[in-house]
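Q: My labmate handed me this sequence with no annotations at all. I'd like to see what the chain might look like in three dimensions before we decide whether it's worth expressing. Could you predict it?
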Amino acid sequence: MKLSIIIPVFNEEETIAQVIDRVKDLKIPSVEKEIIVVNDGSTDKTLDRIKNKNIIFLTHSRNKGKGAAVKTGIEKSTGEYIVIQDADLEYDPKDIIRLLDKVQKKEAEVVYGTRLNRLPNFLEDEKKPLFLLHYFGNRFLSLVTSVFYGQWLTDMETCYKLFPKKAVAGMRLNAKRFDFEPEITSKLLRRGYRILEIPISTTPRGYEEGKKLNTIKDGTIALLTLIKYRFVD
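A: Here is what I predict for the chain of 233 residues:
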């Protein structure tokens, strides 16, 4: 099996080199890795950190958004399966092995890593009001997804989405920013794919550390995206 690991990156000079190294260090028996880094118009030292990393490197001349970067990566990918890896250190690349294990055991074709199949942790992950807002916002959007598309999900907004390349063949992806998450989830479910969720652990970061998601703005867009693609392609 060949696995394409797509890493969209915008101004992540502090973390991108570590993420690439961790992904390269993954040992997955009988799997060939294809690492595709899409630089989405970074203006910091991200490009310098990527040099000499022996990866497939693609770049946008200007910042277009995470969705646009992932779409570029998908178009250039050659693996039978694709997984998305964020360029910060919130997600542990070792969890990719656990996602892929479900595919190798033929338990699922589409696997998501869920951060939210639990109650809020007021002492750690959700001790800050912003993270608590993220928790309830994500759970609400996942509930809307479950109701609209007929499959229970706890973390539709997760970065870790593993799916076969054939699942997105001919799929028109319009999202430019973080609306990529609800759009691809909606369209995978409408194509009849069942999504298996497995628990993962993350290390959330705040805006002072470079977080780019706007909870209210992007959450509203995600909700409208879920509603839109329930009825149109």
